[in-house]
Amino acid sequence: MTENPSLGRPDRNIALELVRTTEAAALAAARLIGMGDKIAADQAAVDAMRIVLDTVAMDGVVVIGEGEKDEAPMLYNGEQIGDGTGLAVDIAVDPLEGTTLTAKGMPSALSVIALAPRGAMFDPGPCVYMTKLAGAGDIADLLDLDRPIGETLGLVADRRDVDIRDLTVVVLDRPRHDEGIAAIREAGARIRLIADGDVSAALLAASPRSPVDLLWGVGGTPEGVISAAALKSMGGAIVTRLYPRDEAERQAAVEYGRTHADYDLDRQMTQDDLVAGDDCFFSATGVTDGDVLQGVRYQGRRSATTESLVMRSRSGTTRRIVATHNREKLREYNGER
Ligand code: VTB
Ligand code: MG
Ligand code: MG
C-alpha cells in the first residue's frame, strides 16, 4: 500500500546542507570585493564551494555550471559531485552570481545553488540567454511574453488595485533592452536598472511587499533555471523563452531541438518547465549587501557573518539563516578565509 515511505513524514532537507556550500563560496569571494578582479573572485567562490560540496551525501551531477558565456572558471557540466551515496540529483550552481558586482563592490552579488532529482532540470543547450518575466504568485496568470509589456503592466496594476505608475520593473541595463525599457516607461511604470544579478532581481520581484513588482528582460539561461528553483519554493512565478544571440545560435538551437523534445525556441517555459516536479532545493548567500540578502560582514580577524536564504519547494519552507563564522577556528582546519 505504501508507495513512498517518506510521504507524509518529515525527511531530510538537503538545502540545510547546501547552505554550507554557498556560505563557503560567499566567504571566499567576499575577500575580493572591490578588488577589481572578477576572475579571481569567481575562482575563489568556485574553489570554496567545490570543497564543501564533496561533503554532501548525494550522487550529484552538475547540469548547470554557469561560466561558459563569461569564460569563467566553473564546476564543469557533467562533473560528479557529492560523496556518491544517496539521492541521485541534478545540481545547478552559480558560485558567484555577480562577478563584476563583486569586483566593483556593487550591491546584490550572491552565491547560489539549486538541486533537484536527476533529470528534473531544463538543459540550457546552446542558448546562453532567455527572455524572462517574473513576479509574485498573485500575478502568475498574467505573465505572458507574447503580450506587449505595457499591456501586462496595466493588468498587474488592475489586479493589485494600484496605478501603473506605482509599479516598478527591474531590468538589466543592456542596449538589447532599449525598446522594452521605452515601452515600460511609455506605459507609465517605473524602472530599476541593474548592472548584473538577475537571480537576485527575480527573488526581489517575487517577494510580496518588496519595492519591485516585475523582473523583465533577457538574462542568462543558467540564471533562469536557478531562479525557477527558488520561485517554486517561495510561491513566485516566471515565464521564459530561449533567446538566441545570432543566426548561428538559432541554427544550433533548432538542431538541438531535434534530439531534445522540450527544447523549443517558440515555447514559453514556466518555473515548472525549468525545474520539474515538486522537490527542489535552493540556497543563496549574500556576498555584497543587497535588498534580498545582506553581504558578508567581517568582525576583524575573529569572525564573519553571512546571511542566506534556504528553501525547499515541497514544503514551501523558506529560511533566512544568519551565521557567525569563527574565522580563527576555520583558519585552523581550513586554511585562510
Ligand atoms: C544576467 C545576470 C548575470 O549575466 O543573467 C546576465 O544575472 C546576462 O548576460 O549576473 P550579459 O551580462 O551578457 O548581459 C550576468 O550579468 C553574469 O552572469
Ligand atoms: Mg558564475
Ligand atoms: Mg551568473
General description of the model:
There is one protein chain. With 337 residues, the protein is an alpha+beta fold. The protein has helices at 15-30, 38-53, 99-104, 149-160, 178-187, 198-206, 221-234, 247-259, 271-274, 327-334, and strands at residues 59-65, 80-81, 88-97, 110-117, 129-136, 168-172, 190-194, 214-220, 236-242, 269-270, 281-286, 297-299, 303-312, 317-326. It is globular, with a radius of gyration of 19 Å. Bound molecules: 7-O-phosphono-alpha-L-galacto-hept-2-ulopyranose and magnesium ion (2 copies). 7-O-phosphono-alpha-L-galacto-hept-2-ulopyranose is lined by residues 70, 97-98, 172, 174, 196-199, 219-220, 223. Pfam families: FBPase_glpX.
Q: Would you tell me the overall average pLDDT? A: 93
Bound compounds, each kind once, are: 7-O-phosphono-alpha-L-galacto-hept-2-ulopyranose, magnesium ion
Radius of gyration computed on alpha carbons: 19 Å
Largest sheet: 8 strands, mixed
| C-alpha termini separation | 51 Å
Number of beta-strand segments: 14
Strand content: 25-35%
Total helical segments: 10
Write down the overall geometry. Answer: globular
What's the SSE pattern?
Answer: HHEEEHEEHEHEHEHEHEHEEEEH
Estimated structural class: alpha+beta
Helix content: 25-40%
Structure at a glance:
With 337 residues, the chain is of the alpha+beta class. The protein is built from ten helices and 14 strands. The protein binds 7-O-phosphono-alpha-L-galacto-hept-2-ulopyranose and magnesium ion (2 copies).
What key phrases describe this protein's structure?
6-stranded mixed beta sheet; 14 strands; 8-stranded mixed beta sheet; binds magnesium ion; alpha+beta; 337 residues; binds 7-O-phosphono-alpha-L-galacto-hept-2-ulopyranose; 27% strand; single chain
